[in-house]
Amino acid sequence: MKVNKNFAELSESYLFSTVAKKQRAYQAAHPDKEVIRLSIGDVTKPLAPAVIEAMHKAVDEMASAETFKGYPPEYGYDFILDAILLNDYKSRGIDIERDEIFLSDGAKSDCGNIGDILSPENRVAICDPVYPVYLDTNVMNGVKDIIYLPCTAENDFVPSLPVQVPDVIYLCFPNNPTGMCASREQLAQWVNFALENHCLILFDSAYEAFITDDTPKSIYEIEGAESCAIEFRSFSKTAGFTGVRCGYTVVPKALKFDGMSLNAMWARRQATKFNGVSYITQKAAQAVYSEEGKAQNEETLAYYRRNASLILSGLTDSGFRCFGGVNSPYVWLEVPRGMSSWEFFDDLLERCQVVCTPGSGFGKNGEGYVRLTAFNTYERTIEAVNRIKAAFGK
């Protein structure tokens, strides 16, 4: 029996597992200290009342033989697919069809699983720094030809078009970890590049709900993108579903590569490997699009946006160079000169009892930065910023 030796090429542990381990060790050694997490992107606000009500009703339905639901459709019930179609696409003038939307248990899963329909012989372009799942799952799948697209302060953390033409391009905006957004013009450059070179864009739009201006929320707002891009969406940050688990992927039928339809391939993959999202979860997701759900979730999003603004302004005023924090729940902070990302992580934990995520864990160009998230409570975010100001302020 042989194993997938590509796993030997991965780092020993997942970035966020290492951060959590260090936090637990510190708390065990200092039980009297209150630690504030501005690290992992998990939410703290409860689900919207409209969502909870829908879940309760769905649970009651599961208790009756007349309304009980067994296996759900592999790609999602029509009621949630229609809600997604109308609210996320048709309302923005985007012509997507119902059978191009595939409901799932989250964008993270789909970002990794999409490799099932792609060849490991592809040349894959990944931003640096980057959300670890893109890189790690390609390594797991045996992809050897990986191009790193530098995202630095010099290019405002938006990658330039590569000299080497890749087959697959991963883009994430608003970006995790830098919190930066790509403009309509910048996204159009990537779409045109992909169309001219017959590349596939994998566009992670998990944080689109944080956008409040005319920055594109979907890659399909760019002309021609339906012929070169797959889009991943998530309810995790849009509606606090990190523990409920629901997202979706859009695979347009116009995507034809190597004589095959990616839409048909993804449909076949999902039908084979995935039994669908639970009925209770799908009813919860449908409630996100109700008038009450929209209003309630917007209050929560505004709460997190205020946290991001607080972190950005507070730490900038303290002399730190910061990026992101606008149209995004993430602030990308440049660490003090002479320190590495992990050294600053340790220093911040020791001096302020605040947990961040070291930028080096996101790639070579993440060294010298840390990521801070806006998902803690407003009160604890204020306390964290005040602690950092007291320790590192001008």
What does this structure look like?
The longest helix has 27 residues, at 291-317. With 394 residues, the chain is of the alpha/beta class. Helices cover 38% and strands 14% of the residues. Helix 2 (49-62) packs antiparallel against helix 9, helix 3 (78-89) runs parallel beside helix 9 and helix 10 (291-317) runs parallel beside helix 12 (378-392). It contains twelve helices and 15 strands. A hairpin with a 5-residue loop joins strand 11 and strand 12.
Overview in brief:
By secondary structure, the protein is α/β, with parallel strands linked by helices. It is built from twelve helices and 15 strands. It has helices at 15-29, 49-62, 78-89, 107-113, 132-140, 184-197, 236-239, 262-273, 279-288, 291-317, 341-352, 378-392, and strands at 36-37, 101-104, 124-128, 146-150, 168-172, 200-204, 229-234, 247-250, 256-257, 260-261, 322-324, 330-334, 354-355, 357-358, 369-373.
